[in-house]
Give the backbone structure.
Amino acid sequence: MRYVIGRHACEEVFRIRPQSVEEIFVLKQTKSTLKEWKSDLVNRFSKVRLSEKPAPFFDKLGSGHQGFAIKCETLKWEDPVELKGPILVLDGIEDPQNFGAIIRTAWLLGVEQVLIPERRQVTVTSTVTKIASGGVEHVPVFTCAHLNKEIETLKKSGFWVYGAFPPEPKVQSLGQVQFDEKSVIVLGAEHSGIRKSLEKVCDLKVTIPQLEASASLNVGVSAAIFLAEFCRQWPQKL
């Protein structure tokens, strides 16, 4: 069981997997927009319980709820028969806002799956789901006990691994990189970056050109830039 908050995230659940919805919650107030949405939900989901709740109920679920929430079945993803890429590996992303934004970008730019570690990493919470605005319903997120081993397995099946690093010697500029069709893109936390154990399994270190080398881009922005460049080179993936 999981909770999804925010209108866009809830609407995507209704669109993709309506049979998973167990209960719908609407903020108890008189705003016309909420009344209209409640009436629409009653028509679409007549067999699903709809409850009005006070603001504290929603606040406990996460920020930015907009007065909408649903309780639905936990997401279950099957391992694909064949991975084609791109695959995104996140190492130590602890901010739910960043994680949610990355999942949204991953959805819209055709990422096949996202791999995250068990530790030092935010999971798919209701806040992450809200920020992802429906992306969580489309992109499988798998938690791995040993990310480096998972990456090694992908390499054995023909994937090339590209790690995002700050500007430094022996790090190639993103504009000079030719992505393989079967690509794994690895991004680390904004301050600590990619761990040494993962750095060792990267086939190529890549950096985004920037004016000030001592500063760093937001990891969500970096993910979008990397994936946009991959899609520019492989538009058939979209």
In short: Residues 219-233 form the longest helix (15 residues). The domain at 87-237 is CATH 3.40.1280.10 (Alpha/beta knot). Residues 6 and 65 are 4 Å apart (CA to CA).
